[in-house]
Write a structure and sequence with these properties.
Elements lengths: L1 E9 L12 E7 L11 E5 L8 E5 L2 H8 L9 E5 L7
Antiparallel strand pairs: 1-2, 1-4, 2-3, 4-5
């Protein structure tokens, strides 16, 4: 799982068939301390994450294939949770 912050959305007029109908968000991976960690990634979203919200992203290929209905997809990431607030343990 990857902790990330939603930075924007992606729109494409020409796309792979498995991307059609999915909301695509550009997400910036973060460290546990909230610092930027690498390059932004593209993830599909069916939870309704908003701009600058923190999310958890999964790169589980099997779960993603089941979600889109085929194992032949260029997708790699899917948002699986929206974090409501930070907590210190």
């Amino acid at each position: 799982m990857i902790l990330a912050r939603v930075e924007g959305n992606a729109v494409s007029t020409i796309q792979h068939p498995t991307l059609k109908g999915w909301r695509q968000l550009l997400c910036q991976p973060l460290t546990a301390e909230g610092e930027v960690d690498g390059y932004p990634i593209l993830a599909i979203d069916d939870l309704g994450a908003g701009l600058h919200q923190r999310v958890l992203i999964s790169s589980d290929g099997k779960a993603l294939s089941q979600k889109v209905g085929t194992r032949y997809t260029p997708l790699r990431y899917a948002i699986i949770a929206i974090l409501d607030e930070e907590s210190v343990a």
